[in-house]
Design brief:
single chain, five-stranded mixed sheet, alpha+beta, BirA Bifunctional Protein, domain 2, 625 residues, globular, ten-stranded mixed sheet, 4 domains
Length: 625
């Protein structure tokens, strides 16, 4: 069964039960400074779980894009990923346990055709002021009885156990974990999970639990959690106690990747159509075969997971940087390159870009925006790979000079070559060594203190002010970008800008130095458009319309639903919302300000063209009377 089938069946199943399908929220949370990424289906819905009325009603269904950086060290086994989709259905004070548990069982057994005999469930055993979930136990026994299974509770597998009670550490859900870790105001509640039994084919040969008594939540690999119904009915109070919410909610989450694995009776989520196209590219690039031995298998899992996660972040506007979401993105890409080195892929880093198209195809039906942005993302991936590739090679050579690694050496590798802590740990592990984290942190904090003063004086990008000269150079900047696209390469996109009263600076994607002839032609075109005294017009329109008619935008920038588009030389009588590139010289998303006619700009001169990083060029320009 394909992942699209699983997703669509789930959505349709709950729509038939009067649920309204809602779109996935962005991976970058809106109005939530407490977390970098959306990590669960319930995260965007917290206000409604706490009682706010949802505009689509009390019954909702969705598939939510999610990312969990805390799972990064577990990626490499058959089931853990950083990026995943969480299928969810929601009751906001409407139905509760007696509807939810039979529905999810029916979906798994009727829609996905899972054998009921291979399903096992867990419930909350009770803790503190919250009692054992006897109601769910009673409902589960009835559900299993209807399919001819005598579901016993509290016994081992060998004694016919089917329902297992666990403490809050295993069977309580909130964003912060068990009740003692929940901050005041946080909602949470007991849950009931469903596990699929893969039998011997799921067992991990190296599992530390393989000789221990087996149970659904033992993590030996035999069982995989595929569904979790959370009964979100409590809220943590300032005094540390739990208070029942005015409305009892159902918050269901089921990983699409895991449900697809169960539907295909294959315990390896990386063998599903959600990952196999990426694995195929890695096999072709490396000449290694997935599954033949542990090393390429684990490495290909990490690579395919990390690059897919990186692409989905970039779709939602994240760019590689050294802070916030951008740091996590850069860490994923660089960690991928390190694992690529283990496959012998350090000489040709273009394989990173070749992983982009498979991701676009995987999500073509469910997230068409991936396809829309994939060409720009491919360039960004390659730029980041080239930027770090040579550094990686030099850093790995440097490491060979040291018989043993320590925290100070690890920090020097970080500062000089950009090796994150996790990468140095990986390399030390390969050598059978450990690295002192405290020593690394000590060196890191010294560095932060020394650099703080310098950082305070750094010039920020964009417009320095809205003065007359800066405004003129801003309009010249638009003319310059359009001229580069028309005369050098139509795929050129802006990657950054800095405009003062004295000069403009534009960064753009391009893989080589521009020739003197190209620079002269671009300079001539800009001056021609200035002499033509073209009209500059601002039109407000829907963002989607602006994108469709070809308006340029800076990659990675977030724009509101309605945007201002500045046109240079929009033809008379043309409807701006139906314009094509043939109807104007330039059109860009922009907040302004600009001159009204280009004739006021003066003479434009390209002062300098240089590299601004791997795959990024930079031009400085001036205006004179």
């Amino acid at each position: 069964m394909q992942s699209d089938d699983v997703r669509n069946k789930f959505i349709q199943y709950y729509k038939a039960r009067k649920h309204v399908a809602i779109p996935s929220a962005s991976l970058v949370p809106e109005n939530d400074p407490t977390t970098l990424f959306t990590s669960s289906g319930m995260q965007p819905l917290i206000p409604y779980l706490l009682g706010q009325t949802h505009p689509s009603g009390k019954r909702l269904v969705d598939s939510q894009k999610s990312f969990r950086s805390q799972d990064i060290d577990e990626v490499g086994d058959n089931r853990h990923t950083t990026f995943f989709e969480m299928l969810g259905n929601w009751s906001l004070g409407d139905y509760f346990k007696k509807e939810q548990l039979p529905w999810i069982f029916e979906f798994l057994t009727k829609e996905l055709k899972l054998d009921p005999k291979r399903l096992y469930v867990s419930v909350f055993e009770g803790e503190g002021a919250v009692p054992k979930d006897e109601e769910s136990i009673h409902i589960w026994k009835k559900i299993f009885k209807e399919v001819g299974i005598d579901a016993k509770e509290g016994l081992s597998l060998n004694e016919g156990g089917r329902i297992f009670a666990y403490p809050a550490k295993k069977n309580w859900w909130s964003r912060s974990g068990e009740p003692k870790n929940m901050p005041p105001g946080e909602p949470g509640g007991p849950d009931s999970e469903v596990f699929f039994d893969f039998g011997a084919k799921g067992l991990h040969e190296k599992s530390p639990w393989k000789n221990e008594p087996c149970h659904p939540n033992c993590d030996c690999g035999r069982f995989m959690e595929i569904a979790n119904s959370v009964f979100m009915q409590y809220q943590k109070m300032p005094d540390g106690n739990l208070k029942e919410l005015a409305q009892k909610n159902v918050d269901f989450g089921g990983g699409l990747e895991r449900m697809t694995a169960a539907a295909n009776d294959n315990p390896d989520v990386f063998m599903s159509d959600l990952f196999s196209p990426l694995i195929q590219v890695l096999e072709e690039a490396s000449g290694r075969v997935y599954g033949e031995e542990p090393v390429p298998t684990r490495v290909m899992r990490v690579l395919s997971d990390h690059i897919k996660a990186a692409i989905m972040m970039m779709v939602d506007g994240v760019l590689p940087s050294n802070k916030g979401q951008g740091y996590i993105l850069r860490r994923l890409i660089r960690r991928s390159l390190l694992y690529g080195w283990k496959l012998g892929l350090i000489k040709d880093l273009t394989y990173i870009g070749r992983l982009a198209s498979p991701v676009a195809k995987i999500y073509a039906g469910s997230y068409p925006e991936v396809t829309e942005k994939i060409d720009e993302i491919r360039l960004l991936l390659q730029e980041e790979a080239l930027r770090f590739g040579k550094t990686l090679e030099r850093g790995l050579a440097e490491i060979e000079k040291f018989p043993a690694l320590n925290g100070k050496i690890a920090f020097n590798l970080y500062e000089t070559f950009g090796f994150p802590w996790e990468m140095t740990v990986e390399i030390a592990s390969e050598k059978g060594q450990t690295v002192d984290r405290a020593q690394f942190e000590e060196e890191f904090n010294k560095h932060k203190t020394l650099s703080r003063t310098a950082a305070a004086g750094m010039f920020k990008g964009g417009l320095a002010d809205h003065g007359e000269e800066t405004t003129k150079l801003h309009t010249a900047h638009h003319l310059l970008l359009a001229s580069l696209q028309k005369l050098v390469d139509p795929s050129i996109k802006q990657r950054g800008s800095n405009i003062t009263a004295e000069r403009l600076r534009i960064d753009f994607n391009f893989m080589r130095k521009l020739t003197p002839e190209e620079l002269t032609k671009v300079e001539v075109m800009v001056n021609e458009k200035i002499k033509e005294n073209l009209k500059v017009t601002r039109i407000e329109m829907a963002r989607g319309v602006a994108e469709t008619m070809g308006a340029q935008r800076e990659f990675g920038q977030k724009y509101p639903d309605r945007v201002g588009v500045y046109f240079v030389n929009l033809k008379e009588g043309v409807d701006p919302e139906r314009a094509t590139p043939a109807d104007y010289f330039s059109a860009e998303f922009c907040g302004g300000p600009h001159v009204s006619f280009t004739g006021t700009l003066g003479h434009f001169t390209i002062r300098k063209e240089e590299s601004a990083g791997a795959g990024i060029r930079r031009i400085y320009g001036l205006l004179s009377k």
